[in-house]
Amino acid sequence: MIKVGKNDPCPCGSGKKYKRCCLENDKHNNVTRIAPESDGENKWLSDVDPKQIDYAALAVLIEEELNWMNTLYQLVGKRILDNMIAEYDAAAIATGIFLWNAYSLENQPITRKVDVYPAAVEYAIAQLAGRTDVTQGMLAQKYNLSVGTISQRANQLWEFTLKQAEERKNEGIDDLAEFTGSPEELLAYYKQGMIAGERELGQAFFQENKGHFWGLIETRPYMQSKAGYANCLLYMGNTKEAIQQCKELLELNPNDNQGIRYLLLKIYMEENKYDAALKLIDAYEEDETAIFNYNRILIEYGKNGITRKLTSLLQDAVEQNPHVVDYILGKKRIPEEVPEFIGFGDKTDAVSYAQEHVMLWWENPELMNWLKKQTSASVSRRSKK
Length: 385
Known about the structure:
The protein is mainly α and 385 residues long.
């Protein structure tokens, strides 16, 4: 069962968002609303291959699946479909429809010309897709509007996506396990937040503040969107782009308040990029977490096999956190629940490492046998004393 989210349509059927309708009364009465299991908007996109979505399916999405405040907003959704169907793939159009639906529910905009927001949505989606051939001037001619009108409405959409990104983060929706839509939808969502942040901050701001970005509060929504985008890329198997996003984040904020180095290190390890992994560890030589110490062993083994150096690396790792080895060797069951807080050198640190990295050990039988022998030898020495 999934609880109704603040930004979901209110279960009472008003068409408003839950937070703007019954949420406060439910809190006061200690009522928890459960989202109905239906073929709603999130299931629609997650269960269908975007390449197989056609005009009819998108029309059904607008007419039957989504909740609209009024018929005018639904008509705008249809206009978005009709005006984009010939030039964009179905996934891009669906993203545009979802964007307009969320924006109209939240802001209830007044529009006298039905094509104002279709033009703004198309421009936003074109920017999202990196289509430099789609300009505001071109769309002004297509929709018979002024460039200024399209620019103003598009900026409103970008501001909305930035606000939504911040709200999602504040509500703790920052990983795929807590998001009820498809990975493709989440990827588009994060990318919208990034583009909105880039537009809001400006290129000069990035150049001037590179190296201490996180210290400026106004950069946080952008940095959070970019981190979410990197995680989503990794989940979908696009490791090359995920690596690039992580490297850009660390260039903007070398202090790494977001812990991006741990994500990047994990990618390097899974891709057997040992030189890059070692370079990353060396860049944060003061980091003495289990992630860094135990992965030093994996890197040495990956580069050189069983060596004498492994013994000293294991001693350092065990000294920092003695709990990890039992999880790697299967002497202790790895908890399924992710620790709410991760300490330093304690069991939560060990559990966090094992959950993310234990398979890197288990897929190397030779290294596992070596670890068992080292552990047995260590126990034997202690018993003799």
